[in-house]
UniProtKB/TrEMBL annotation:
<dbReference type="Pfam" id="PF01471">
    <property type="entry name" value="PG_binding_1"/>
</dbReference>
<dbReference type="InterPro" id="IPR036366">
    <property type="entry name" value="PGBDSf"/>
</dbReference>
<feature type="domain" description="Peptidoglycan binding-like">
    <location>
        <begin position="137"/>
        <end position="195"/>
    </location>
</feature>
<dbReference type="InterPro" id="IPR036365">
    <property type="entry name" value="PGBD-like_sf"/>
</dbReference>
<dbReference type="InterPro" id="IPR002477">
    <property type="entry name" value="Peptidoglycan-bd-like"/>
</dbReference>
<protein>
    <recommendedName>
        <fullName>Peptidoglycan binding-like domain-containing protein</fullName>
    </recommendedName>
</protein>
Length: 1239
């Protein structure tokens, strides 16, 4: 018989084969009408000690039973009923407390297995006289909860707030229920705030009769459940001793399509020639390997009922595994063979279809196989080591419990799952971000529906070798739960799911050594809980006060109600804090006293009053006795009041609070007194008394400048309003200013004068000012009457624009000034709150001088961003950059409509360019074409507007679409294409002044001097590469490496390369060779012959072109190579008779070159420097223009690199299309950076 007994630790003894006397229960009536039922600890201690040899197993029970509006804690009969005598004794005790009949009936029903009757809805209409929101308490809150529960918008399904257990506290559950009720009844917004709108709706509903919510529709229940054997049964194998979760059988549960099916129990039976003693317990596992419910032992009929309910959704199947935890000593049962079978299934009203028994394969009991183990359980190093008696709310990453095991020597193991049990009174809302830590790694923990179990499923991620350790801990954040406990235990050894890697059996961790007593935090025990963690108590609520900068230090006025005098942050943790007394003291300047501050109140930052108003006493303090609640979290409160006119300017006021002495507070949940912190005074920002004040001046911008007549809305001045020293915001309604014309101008030359706050006109319609003084050089009064008043916030400076239209009447050099003059500078200004007239302080300034111009100036120059060196341009390519021009507009904005361009290079013709394009950044604004053989072109910027703002510059980019090269094409290879602005054709270039409207031409001058692009079909790009070693050694070694890449437009040819070799041991350096490869690894020959030069180069002494030595085209330290990758025919007499041809590099391809030399007699101190040479000027022959034969280029003064942009398989070095190395990308005009070698 099982006797559940409510204890302090809320555990129940299961006493086997004993007849115990009735236990002694204590029932006490607590505050709020609650009844608490508990055992007599002394009696239970005697019972436990008297039967110390029994196996006592614990199960947590903490069920709250609804008892007509009060809460009683009673034992729940889980495994056996109390006798009638015991029930009668409890009822008699309740009668002695004067409990009502409903309470007694509900207790009696609970104790006898019945269902308590929920509390009825409120007997009458609730009386709501105030707004109800989070943190509020009272009987009206309880009435609201009762109404919500009766209207179908339940506050909670069980526990506090549920039907029959309504409370007087408005918390998050009540807020959610109110929101649901608002949504259902059309109250907007659905914020969960029970205010005026909600009260009106409630009254309307109650006037038409109580709302009876429709009963919820029944959840469809499946008509049938089919149970079949899984075709993939666990294979027949050994069942070793101490093995856990040994899978014996699998069954498939399939629900009918018409509804879900709840399986109440599965009955299993041990079959075959196996003793029941071989099996310690039987369990059922779901498809994820999670154990459902408790483990069960076999009864005398070899059966066990697994009673943990599970649901099979309609039309789906679930596969369940019947598994066994084997006994730790199978020496007597070894060799026995048995199996497990499902023999019965209880599915309630759903018909069960199946051919029972459903049995798995037989397993052989084994006592000799040494499977892995988890031994030596001990408290882990992450364990706190003691119970925390005051765990603060807000604590992050708190390690509540930790256990550790050592892995045995039989096999490595894999930890798959750890399940912790929260035995404390804290709820899921109190602990957040729960993680299970395994060997230093954190894993997310899944909480069970009741918030008690937290499991981490690790899969196969945690493997530990033999002799290693497994440590697991529980880590969490404390979010709430004042005066509640956090107690994480491991209930059973099988909650640690670990599997051996060698044999594949699950293992049962070793028992602990501690005896399980009533002491908390015993660590590993031999019973349940398997690991008993410490119970940590969450501290009661706290209240902390600090200065808030919501109200910054600043100026404050006198005689203004609700002036902000300071702000404080009050942070409540653990529970809402109820404040019943709140004292504020004011620090004042000498000579002032507290009676000069009236009507002080405490406001939330949302503007709601929570305390006050009250006047400050002569002791400069005010104490509020209003009761208000500080919600959990950081909250800002503002102190407001009115300073009387007795205060003088520059007096200071500073609010301060001494938290532990000035605040009386208690926890709203616990009712316990809370001492606010810190113990020292907290002071708000200092406020300085200032009456309304304003300084008026002319801002430094805009500066004096030229302006073209005819401009509308021209900015003449900015008025600066400075309220830095004002104690309140200011309102300006009128501003008077002086307009001063000079140099022959008259005020009437201007019109439509307005003031602007940003883009907003402050005087419009009839308030627009038109100057009317017609006498030349005579000041005129401008009076701006604001139809939109100017507000200047205290402590700030605002600038307001003054703009007027300029007519076309003023002559050049006439001037105007708008400012604050000695005769015209008055401002009408009052305090925004007080309405007090303010006498402003004015800084006289007649304003900047604006000088009239009849038109602007257009200037065109070469911009510094324009290319400064010649470049190669690929034929037929579009948008090739030629030149960048700088267009400048002076005195007015100018729109450029037309620009004159010229073809500047003497070597190029108009046929080399298809067309020119003009660009404003990425926007094309115009095009131009050179007509016929002409060298001048005029571009009309008609594709997009090209406007240069007044007194600024803008860049105009000129690009070209280059001509085609080839047979019958007009463009010429090697031509230098250069285009510039034509500075002489000034009338051809035209701009339009946007203020004056007149046509503008630039001043005549020289053409810009841009550089051009040389027209080719393709060109090479060089890149120097590193060499394998820079240390000299005898034999052949690499002296230089580089890469040559042809542009993607076409192939190119190379006829000659030249290297400079400087050596301390020239005579010992012989036989230079140049190799070419097609890969960066220098492994694949690029040509049929490698090395690629036409003859050997033996020493640094002669030119090898055509076997002619002593040429002036080569220095004595140069090595020259000519190429013939097809044959190695040696030249005979002269260059004209050679068969030397070029190396071809395909379009977009690269060749990797390597210079090698044979070295001998290398000694320490020797050195060699090697570099590839370039050309400093273009090789030019006037007869052939810019195209030469290879030999002509080779013998020119600049001949170090000879190449062709138009090679073919039949082209020869005698064709007129050869260039030198000048301006080749990557090849400097002197030489590529050298490689230095030393010994």
């Amino acid at each position: 018989t099982n006797y559940p007994l409510s204890t302090d630790k809320k555990r129940a003894f299961r006493i086997t084969e004993l007849s115990l006397p009735s236990c002694l229960l204590h029932i006490t009536k607590e505050a709020g009408g609650k009844f608490r039922v508990k055992k007599d600890n002394n009696i239970m201690s005697k019972i436990y000690n008297g039967y110390g040899g029994l196996k006592a197993k614990f199960a947590t029970i903490a069920t709250v039973v609804a008892l007509s509006g009060v809460t009683a804690f009673v034992p729940v009969v889980a495994q056996g009923a109390l006798t009638q005598a015991q029930v009668d004794a409890i009822v008699s005790l309740l009668n002695s407390f004067g409990a009502d009949a409903t309470t007694i009936a509900n207790v009696q029903a609970s104790l006898t297995g019945g269902t308590p009757v929920p509390a009825p809805s409120p007997a009458g209409k609730c009386s709501f006289t105030r707004d109800l929101t989070t943190g509020v308490t009272g009987d009206d809150v309880k009435c609201l909860q009762q109404y919500l529960n009766s209207a179908g918008n339940k506050v909670a399904s069980s526990g506090a707030g549920s039907p029959g257990s309504e409370t007087t506290y408005f918390g998050s559950l009540t807020k959610a229920a109110v929101g649901a009720w608002q949504a259902a009844n059309g109250v907007s917004p659905t914020a969960g705030y029970f205010g005026a709108k909600s009260r009106a709706k409630y009254d309307a509903l109650m006037a038409s009769g109580p709302v009876t919510p429709p009963p919820p529709g029944p959840t469809p229940v499946g008509s049938g459940l089919t149970v079949t054997a899984d075709p993939n049964q666990p294979a027949a194998t050994l069942a070793p001793q101490s093995a856990a979760r040994v899978a014996f059988a699998k069954a498939v549960f399939t629900a009918s399509a018409d509804g879900d099916v709840t399986v109440n129990s599965v009955t299993v039976e041990r079959q075959g020639l196996m003793d029941d003693s071989a099996i310690s317990s039987v369990i059922i596992l779901d498809e994820n390997g999670v154990q459902l419910g408790l483990q069960k032992t076999l009864n005398a009929s070899h059966r066990a009922a697994l009673t943990e309910k599970f649901v099979v959704k309609a039309g789906t199947s679930r596969t369940m595994t019947i598994a066994a935890n084997m006994d730790s000593d199978l020496s007597q049962e070894t060799g026995q063979v048995g199996r497990m079978a499902v023999v019965a299934v209880d599915a309630g009203t759903s018909a069960v279809n199946g051919s029972f028994p459903i049995a798995g394969n037989s397993m052989t009991v084994n006592s000799t196989l040494s499977i892995g183990s988890l031994a030596s359980p001990t408290r882990g190093p992450l364990d706190p080591g003691a119970a925390r008696s005051s765990l603060e709310v807000g604590t992050k990453n708190f390690l509540s419990s930790s256990g550790k095991w050592s892995v045995g020597s039989a096999e490595p193991v894999m930890l798959e799952q750890v399940r912790w049990y929260q035995a404390g009174s804290a709820g899921t809302g109190d602990v957040k971000n729960v993680r299970v830590v395994v060997n230093g790694t954190e894993y997310p923990a899944e909480a069970s529906s009741d918030g008690r179990y937290y499991v981490a499923r690790l899969g196969q991620s945690v493997e530990v070798d033999k002799g290693g350790n497994i440590e697991t801990a529980i880590k969490l954040d404390v979010e709430g739960g004042s005066d509640r406990t956090i107690d994480f235990d491991i209930q059973r050894r099988t909650d640690v799911v670990v599997k051996g890697k060698t044999y594949g059996y699950y293992l049962t961790p070793a028992n602990g050594t501690s005896a399980n007593t009533s002491t908390q935090g015993e660590g590993f025990t031999s019973t349940e809980p398997y690991y008993d963690g410490y119970a940590h108590t969450i501290a009661k609520g706290t209240l902390r006060v600090e200065k808030s900068n919501t109200i910054a230090a600043g100026n404050v006025p006198v005689d203004v109600s609700n002036t902000s005098l300071g702000s404080f942050m009050l942070e409540a943790k653990g529970e809402p804090v109820q404040v019943t007394s709140f004292k504020v003291t004011f620090g004042l300047s000498a000579g002032e006293d507290g009676t000069q501050i009236d009507n002080v109140s405490v406001f939330t930052d949302a503007g709601a009053v929570v305390a006050g108003p009250k006047d400050v006493g002569s002791d400069e303090s005010v104490t509020f006795t209003d009761t208000w609640t500080v919600p959990v979290g950081a909250n800002t409160y503002v102190i407001k009041g009115k300073l009387t006119t007795d205060f003088e300017d520059a007096d200071t006021v500073q609010a301060q609070i001494d938290p532990d002495g000035d605040i009386t507070a208690k926890g709203e949940v616990t009712g316990l007194t809370i001492s606010a912190t810190p113990t020292s005074s907290t002071t708000a920002n200092t406020m300085t008394v200032k009456r309304a004040a304003l300084r008026v001046a002319i801002a430094p911008t805009p500066a004096s400048q030229n302006v073209v007549r005819g401009v509308n809305g021209f900015l003449f001045a900015k008025v600066q309003y400075d309220a830095s020293d004002s104690g309140e915001d200011l309102r300006i309604t009128t501003q008077k200013m002086g307009l001063t014309p000079a140099s022959g101008s008259t005020a009437t030359d201007l019109n439509t004068c307005q003031m602007f706050d940003g883009a907003t006109a402050l005087n419009s319609g009839g308030n627009v000012v038109t100057p009317d003084e017609a006498t030349a050089n005579t000041e005129d009064l401008l009076t701006f009457n604001m139809d939109t008043e100017i507000i200047i916030p205290k402590g700030t400076v605002k600038e307001v624009d003054v703009k007027c239209n300029i007519s076309n009447l003023p002559a050049a050099s006439e001037t105007f000034r708008v400012g604050l003059t000695s005769t015209n500078s008055d401002t009408t200004v009052v305090g925004k709150s007080t309405g007090v007239t303010v006498t402003e302080s004015v800084t006289l300034n007649t304003g900047p001088t604006m000088t009239i111009k009849t038109g602007g100036t257009l200037t065109i120059t070469l911009d510094a961003s324009s290319p400064t060196a010649e470049r190669y341009g690929i034929a037929n390519k579009t948008d090739v950059l030629l030149v960048v021009l700088k267009i400048k507009a002076t005195d007015e904005a100018i729109r450029l409509d037309r620009i004159a361009l010229t073809l500047a290079s003497s070597t190029a013709s108009s046929s080399d360019i298809k067309k020119l394009t003009l660009w404003d950044g990425a926007t094309k604004v115009g095009e131009a074409v050179f007509q016929g053989t002409g060298t001048r072109a005029t571009s009309t910027l008609s594709l997009a507007d090209f406007t240069v703002a007044k007194d600024t510059e803008k860049l105009l980019t000129i690009k070209a679409d280059l001509g085609l090269l080839g047979v019958n094409e007009a463009a010429t290879r090697g031509h230098l294409v250069t285009v510039n602005y034509d500075g002489e054709a000034v009338t051809t270039t035209k701009g339009v002044g946007l203020s004056s409207g007149g046509e503008l031409n630039p001043t005549a001058g020289a053409d810009t001097a841009g550089v051009g692009v040389r027209l080719v079909q393709t060109y090479p790009t060089f890149e120097r590469l590193s060499v394998p070693s820079n240390t000299l050694a005898n034999g052949e070694m690499t002296l230089y490496r580089f890469k040559v890449t042809a542009d993607a437009a076409d192939d190119l040819g190379i006829a000659k390369m030249t290297f400079r070799v400087s050596s301390t041991t020239v005579a010992t350096t012989t036989i230079f060779k140049l190799f070419a490869y097609s890969d960066s690894g220098f492994s694949t020959n690029a040509y049929a012959q490698n090395p690629v030069h036409s003859r050997n180069v033996d020493e640094v002494s002669e030119d090898v072109w055509g076997n002619v030595s002593g040429s002036g085209a080569m220095g004595t330290d140069e090595i020259v190579f000519y190429f013939n990758p097809v044959s190695n025919t040696t030249p005979t007499v002269s260059s004209a008779s050679t068969t030397v041809e070029a190396l071809n590099i395909p379009a977009g391809g690269s060749r990797y070159f390597e210079l090698k030399g044979s070295l001998a007699s290398v000694t320490i101190g020797d050195s060699i420097a090697v570099a590839l040479l370039g050309d400093s000027t273009f090789a030019n022959n006037t007869n052939l223009v810019n195209r030469e034969q290879a030999d002509v280029v080779g013998y020119s003064a600049q001949n170090d690199f000879v190449w062709s942009p138009n090679p073919t398989t039949t082209s020869a070095t005698t064709t007129n299309d050869w260039l030198n190395g000048y301006q080749v990308p990557g090849l400097p005009t002197t030489e590529m950076s050298q490689q230095n070698f030393t010994k």
